[in-house]
Amino acid sequence: MAITRRIFLRQSTLSLVGVGALPAWLARAAAAEPAQRKKILVAIFQRGAADGLNIVIPHAERNYYPARPTIAIPRPAAGDPRAALDLDGFFGFHPALAPLKPLWDARHLAIIHAAGSPDPTRSHFDAQDYMESGTPGVKATTSGWLNRVLRARCPDCEQGARLAPAASGAPAWLGAGQSPLRAVAIDAQMPLSLRGPAPAVAIANLAAFRVGYGPAAAPAAQAFQAMYESSSDALLEPAGRDTFAALRIVRQLDPKKYRPASGAHYPRQGLGASLRQIAQLIKADVGVEVAYADVGGWDNHVAEGGAEGQLAARLREFAGALSAFWADLGDRAEDVVLVSMSEFGRTVRENVTAGTDHGHANVMFVLGGPVAGGKVYGRWPGLEPEQLYQGRDLALTTDFRDVLAEVLTRHLSVAANDPAGLAAVFPGYAAEVKNFRGFLARA
Length: 443
What we know:
The structure is a single chain. This protein is α/β, with parallel strands linked by helices. It has one domain (about 40-435). It is built from 15 helices and twelve strands. It has helices spanning about 5-10, 25-30, 50-55, 65, 100-105, 125-135, 145-155, 155-160, 170-175, 215-230, 235-255, 270-285, 310-330, 400-410, 420-425; strands spanning about 40-45, 55, 85, 90-95, 110-115, 185, 200, 290-295, 335-340, 360-370, 375, 400. The strands form two sheets. Strands 1, 5, 6, 7, 8, 9, 10, 11 and 12 form a nine-stranded mixed beta sheet that branches. It has a three-stranded antiparallel beta sheet with strand order 2-4-3. Helix 10 runs antiparallel to helix 11 and helix 12 packs parallel to helix 13. Mean pLDDT is about 85; it is low at about 1-35, about 160-175 and about 210-240.
């Protein structure tokens, strides 16, 4: 069952006033034996094309510093707060990523450099769509890779989740073993990554997740619910039931009273707020398998800055959010893998306005309990003029689908050699084990 007694007994997200006040089906769920903990994937999209070369700096690469005379991050130096934080003698973190260094040292954080989409577009919109659809260069794809992951893991879930409610009063998803919160985007609208036939829900703010506002909210919600439940439309009625089932669960969680564990301090806005809500849902065991969040502000054509500036501000938020998320999860981190991506990187050379322009390959982060971290994975292509993509960008050596495929097969148990498995998630692409980097060797 997707909802277990963990919701009621774990000292985290749900304040139980009295089982007698709960619906009968929810009370029975509370008394049920705990289910095996789910493996969970959290996908983070850095919209705007982050500058991977100033996020994970190749400080031992001789051409890095001449190419960036005003925005380069200084080589590692003890006592210099503006210097890169050395990782392995060749690469280093931007100093704003200091909160992530303990996770790197503990081998929970892995980096894949020179990774990304092989498509040559420099359009934000096309590149984002290609990565979210999982089909670079193909504009006709209407579903997202994460939605196809849901189908690959459970081909019959969309049918099972839409069975009529049982006589016991339990919602359909409970009887079928599927939660309406199986796939969640912390967003005002459904991102392309999660669009498709498998049920998913977009929630901008858990505390504000409701139908209608003001004094008329409750009657409006009841009217909408009745309309959906009585609908004969084969698509409208299941979608409405799933949404209202999700709404009831979130209301029980009482998001406004949530207190992160282990002294975790999330940034109040942006990615910090999103990951705080994802952590609450994960720890409540409400059936989350896939969660998504994005964060913008990475398109730094002008005055990008080096150790301080626009990029540094984004990275402080990014590092603070990931660090707090890890601390907040506690033992649940063993069940979670978080992966970050951005549509493409930035030019190797800074431009005349002390910024960077649209580039090609980038850097991806993978964080989680099963991760074999403390290592930069992938083949480094070099920054010599003849090694650059189109003479200006970091060359691609790892397709982002290989990174995601390793997470899917080794963490979520998506079948690697099944036409309905990995091949269905990334149609037209042969993601092979031989291309995996080994960052989930501990899985």
